Known about the structure:
disordered C terminus, 40% helix, 10 helices, alpha/beta, Rossmann fold, two-stranded antiparallel sheet, eight-stranded mixed β-sheet
Amino acid sequence: MTINISITNLKGGVGKTTTSGLLAKYLTEIQNRPVILIDLDPQCGTTSLFIGRDSRTSSIKDALVATMEGDDAGEIMRSALVNVPGYQNFFVIPSDKRLTDMISGIPADLLQWSIMAAGFSDDTVVIVDTGTAQGMVGLGICAANQVLVPMMMSKQTVKPTMNTLTMLARFRKPILGVLPVGSGEAQWEQTVLDKYQNTLDTAPDLKPLGGVVLPRIPYSKTLIRGAWASNPFPVNLIPVFDLIYERIFGRSELPVSQIPHPAEVIDG
């Protein structure tokens, strides 16, 4: 089976698309692993960043609808793959603005079954950029083996980040890490990060998930503007993503909980 990593946070503007893309580039450029990046955000940020406007009509929305209707979602998933220019083993399954029609009242395991139906090779890493809609976040979490939670250092980020961690506890998904994006070295920032780590270590519903606060990704105009997408992976970020890689492949996962039947329904 594929290794599925979801990048998620209920707060917008915290670096989900940047983190998803950087992880994909790191895995394929530095570790030579095949990567499929699924854009689950109706704003289509990942789609625009890596493949622009593609002439194909198939998208992740078509596969999700096919899964709901009992059609061949696997064939749609495979036909939706777009090879990122310049890479042999890096593909994107594009998003679709029509995903806004599916933000509520959808089975939580819909994406999980769509990925399984596609029959991708076992060495493939599937990365999911969830966007912020609660329904899409739930799909991404349910489909994931591990979940990475990027965050920005601001008061507005704290509550939605904690709500995201609560969703992870609900689904009992291992926490790959909380990743501070665009942060500095101020003492108040370290104090906030220490509080997050204490919560991950002591909260009864989060402690079993094994989460850690990862090293910071420093603020960079290059990252904010997206210029990194068309350039080689940033050398200064290799140590951070080496650690993420080690956590993906160097530890055992929690026991996989059974998918509820009928599937739990997510309300947006």
